[in-house]
Amino acid sequence: MRKILRAILLIYAVSTITFFLVRLMPGNIVDRLVLQYMTQGIPEYEARQMVASLLGIDFSKPLHEQYIEYLFNLLRGDLGTSYEYMGVPVASIIMYGLPWTVFLLSLALTTSFIFGILIGGFIGYREGSKLDRTLTILSMGLQATPNYIVGILLLYYLAFVYRMFPRKGAYDIGLTPSFTWEFISNVLWHSTLPFLAYFITSFGIWALNMRASTIRVLGEDYVMAAEARGLRDKRIAITYVARNALLAPLSLFIISVGYIFGGSVFIESIFTYPGIGWYITHALGTADYPVLQGCFLLITISVIVANSAGDIIYSLLDPRVRVR
Amino acid sequence: MRVRWVAERIRYGLSVVASTKSGLASLAIIVAYALMAIIGPLMIPFDVTRTNLSESLLPPSLEHPLGTDYFGRDILAMLVHGSRDVLLTATLAAIITVSVGTVIGLVAGYVGGFVDLALMSIADVMLTIPSVPLMVVLACTVFRGIPVNPFTMALILSVNSWAGLSRAIRAQVLSLKEEEFVEVARCLGLSGRHILLNELLPNLLPYIAISTVLSVGSAIYAQVGLYMLGIVPYSAVNWGVMLNMAMAQLGMIFTATYAGLLAPAFAIVLLQVSLAIFASSLDKLLNPRLREQ
Q: Inter-chain contact B257–A156, Cβ cutoff 8 Å?
């Protein structure tokens, strides 16, 4: 109960911050649109009223009134309408970008997690060996490499120089989304490079984490006891070591799930991949506040929800931790 | 006395790092980058605004070891001059992050009660907002009114990075508070200021050192990324700006952007990897078991 209350308070705080952050932004779209109407020969006062009714937001109102209106709209699930795509609700823009982001990042996150766990467990068992040292340094180096650098290099070599992969987008223009093989293969083909950029730079962190965790578990008394009981090595490795060593990286993984919804601003921008991260940068460029506000709320709320869910899942997995 | 003690700790830390081959190599590379940033720009004269389109996109030669960019500027000179902006900003950001995080963590952990609750609530809100989108928005907002310089950029880079650190420091303070030496100091009637600065802080130093190195790394990541997106108005030479320009040319004349793209990319990767290895070598300070190997 206290956890839920805390989560609600956090969501309130974050939506307030979002509201004021977005109001701070320069490049007032109202003035821009008013100017546009005025050049068409419409008097300023009428132009202002037209813009206000078009956007559904009155910037001339005092800030606190805007704020209260914003909170009430949020409670009703109304995120407002986009400025750039006149009249399109923000919610439907988010619903357009979200599937791409979730598709790309959940795939990339889970594969890098599984791959990292396998490598980490493997080298953790062989601590100090030559293979361990090589793979540890490799993992460390790759996780320190910025994902956008790998993205740019992949784009340069595989899309521009060798033309093996498309340069941008989530699928070819001209295809209509459907469950045909043609469309699905096209989507996979387009998402290969962004996927690789994410995968290459993130499996290392899981490998290092799993390695450290495995080494720690190997030092535990119950592993020695299992060995003394003469259990088969394979059984010890899987049911005693791997299962316990998995807990630490798993709790990190659950937290990372919440960050999926924010997309990856850098990777999505490089590959012009139409996910949430791309919409954020795009909305900044066009001063589309409602979209920006909506994306931000979505990101933070999903982080909060995932963290709370993570606490509960973790307590189910590890009986030593109980949610109070 | 205090200065000598700190110098001794730093010397000891570096000797632990240098005791392994990879640690020594990373230290050497980082020192080389620092030298490049400090004295490099003095040795290679360069003016960003001087463009010469007749020398556009030249291949590597004796005069231009890495070739020239679209505007006919020497890529090597841009790389060297860019290192100053990148490193200065990242170092400032790390200093801000670590000092704010340490002070807040120390105070929250030591004082406890309402102060602890208030400070950690702020930290929790900050931790909830994903940092890259937040920095993207801030960079877009703040720099319309305020000029971009290493200090303002560093402020944006550290806006929510202190939160995770302050939580970690607080957790360590809470466990250190239970130790006997703190209890003894309290029984002796030593002031809270003395306990914080002379008893708790020295025990946290290895952790603070590692956090500083890691913060430099993440500040470089975010800063170069922001410039690469092209959303920060740029005045200085910066590796991210170089990447941004090379990306812009990718659409038009991509075969020629070879050096313009690879040079900053390589510079960033080498530095980031060295910082990561350096930080993991410092881990041995925290974990004596690793030191024996």
A: yes
Mean pLDDT for the stretch of residues A299-318: 81
pLDDT tens, residue by residue, B111-125: 888 888 889 888 888
Find all residues with CB under 8 Å of B82, minimum gap 6, and list them.
Answer: B236, B237, B238, B239, B241, B242, B264, B267
Contact B135, B222 (CB under 8 A): yes
Measured distance CA(B182)–CA(A93) in Å, rounded: 56
Q: Where are the alpha helices (DSSP H) in A145-275?
A: 147-154, 181-218, 221-228, 233-235, 243-245, 247-259, 265-270
- Cα→Cα distances A181→A78, A195, A302, Å: 36, 20, 32
CA distance between the termini of chain B: 33
Compare CB distances from B136 to A26, A141, A284 and report the shortest one's residue.
Answer: A284
Would you call A144 and B265 a contact, using CB atoms and an 8 Å cutoff?
Answer: no
Nearest to B266 by CA among B94, B120, B76: B76
A281 touches chain B (CB under 8 A): yes
Q: Are A200 and A150 in contact (CB under 8 A)?
A: yes
A144 vs B138, B255, B276: nearest CB: B276
How far apart CA A197 and CA A195 sit, in angstroms, is 5
Query: What are the angstrom distances between the C-alpha of B29 and each of A144, B264, B277?
Result: 15, 16, 11
Report ipTM (2 d.p.): 0.85
Domain boundaries, chain B: 20-38+67-287
Cα distance between residue A298 and residue A304, in whole Å: 10
Chains A–B, number of C-beta pairs less than 8 Å apart: 113
Nearest residue of B to residue A14 by CA position?
B125
Preferred mutation among B137, B141, B272 to probe A, highest tally of A CBs within 10 A: B137
**B293 pLDDT tier (thresholds 50, 70, 90):** very low
Q: Which residues, in sequence order, are bridge partners of residue B68?
A: B74
List CB contacts (< 8 A) between B243 and chain A: 148, 152
CA distances from B224 to B130, B231, B244 (A): 17, 11, 9
Q: Indicate whether A165 pLDDT > 60.
A: yes
Kindly identify which residue of chain A lies nearest to residue B129, measuring between CA atoms: A300
Q: Where does the pLDDT of residue B267 fall: very low under 50, low under 70, confident under 90, or very high at 90 and above?
A: very high
Contact between B268 and A146 using a beta-carbon 8 Å cutoff: yes
- pLDDT (tens digit, 9 = 90+) per residue, B191-228? 777 887 777 888 888 888 889 999 999 999 999 998 88
Q: Please answer yes or no on whether A149 and B265 come within 8 Å at the CB atom.
A: yes
Does domain B20-38+67-287 match CATH 1.10.3720.10?
yes
From the list B217, B221, B229, the residue facing A281 with the nearest CB is: B229
What 3-state DSSP class applies to B74?
A: strand
Test B247 with A270 for CB contact under 8 angstroms: yes
CB < 8 Å to A267, chain B: none
CA-nearest residue to B216 within chain A is A144
Give the C-alpha separation, B265 to B34, whole Å: 18
Chosen for mutation from A6, A18, A25, A148 (greatest number of chain B CBs closer than 10 Å) is A148
pTM attached to this predicted model = 0.87
